[in-house]
Amino acid sequence: MVRPRVSLALGGGAAKGLAHIGVLKGLAEDGVEVASVAGTSMGAVIGGLVAQGHAAGELEALVRAIDWFRLGRIIVTSVSGTAFHDMLRESFSGVKIEDLALPFAAVCCDLDSGEMVSLTVGDLADAVSASAAIPGILPLRVVNGRRLVDGAVVEPVPVTAAEALLDAPVLAVNVVRPAATPRSGGMVRAAIPFKMELPPLMGRVNRWLRRQRLTNETAELRERVTRWETVMRSFHIMQYRLSTCAHPDVDTIEPEVGGFGWFDFQRAGEIVDAGYRSYRAFADGATGRDWRPRSPS
């Protein structure tokens, strides 16, 4: 019997985007093949790793084990703002999009024309960092002569790009629905709740982390984090309003992660679990939708 397959459209959402991993766990559990993946912002980060061949269990082990406190401080205090791109370059090891295991698209916005740009060839780290270049927080990336910023400006959940990648049913994941009672964000160290076998990718991330220097300007760091959290919450509200109007007929999972802050990466395990619960509720019909991926004929 041929396995059913989907083309994933993974939306942006910073820490909330770790819920994509929980959805991936559910798809693997149900035997659904991810045949292609398009990502915006954090969705491009997770999608790039999936297209590179990393399984959901491997990604979960990675995000549960990363020293988010150290990584967050490095990115926030990067003078030039290039630390995020440098980390991606280390993690993706110079891989080209056209050499990935799956068709992949990183969705960006052309800052000059306002057009959506779907990067499907070229350097993977460049494409992902351009897709995640949050205006005013992370520096834009120049790719093929175009000045690119976060794709969430034009398509928070990249359904259009996912449809163009492959002739397969699109399953979208939107992680930026606001919560009624938000939790406070912040960067604090969290213990790994259980032992998991760490993927080789973890070694590359750790080597990069060890080479970085940290600042001791704690008060300034906290103030910057607070400003950014405000910007991102506002940005996410705008993204959610835009995304819910754009493709109302596409099957969409909305993980219950609105209560997590942009910097709540230290809650990675909780966010992944929330993504998995939302997938199960969606796939099992608890949300009121009759969704089952169809098998190719």
Can you describe what's shown?
- A hairpin with a 2-residue loop joins strand 5 and strand 6 (146-150).
- The chain is 41% helix and 13% strand.
- The chain is globular and about 50 Å long.
- Mean pLDDT is 81; it is low at 181-196.
- The protein has 297 residues and is an alpha/beta fold.
- Helix 2 (42-51) runs antiparallel to helix 6, helix 5 packs antiparallel against helix 6 and helix 5 (83-92) packs antiparallel against helix 8 (200-211).
- The chain is built from ten helices and eight strands.
- Strands 1, 2, 3, 4, 5, 6, 7 and 8 form an eight-stranded mixed sheet that branches.
- The termini are close together.
Tell me about the biggest sheet?
8 strands, mixed
Radius of gyration: 18 Å
What is the terminal separation in angstroms?
A: 10 Å
**Helix share, percent:** 40-55%
Sketch the topology as an H/E string, one letter per element.
EHEHHHHEEHEEHEHHEH
The percent range for strand residues is 5-15%
Note poorly predicted spans. 181-196
Put simply, the count of helices is 10
Overall pLDDT level: 81
The helix-and-strand class reads: alpha/beta
Subunit arrangement of the protein: single chain
Q: Count every beta strand, where a strand is a DSSP E run of 2 or more residues.
A: 8
Described by the principal axes of the CA atoms, the overall outline is: globular
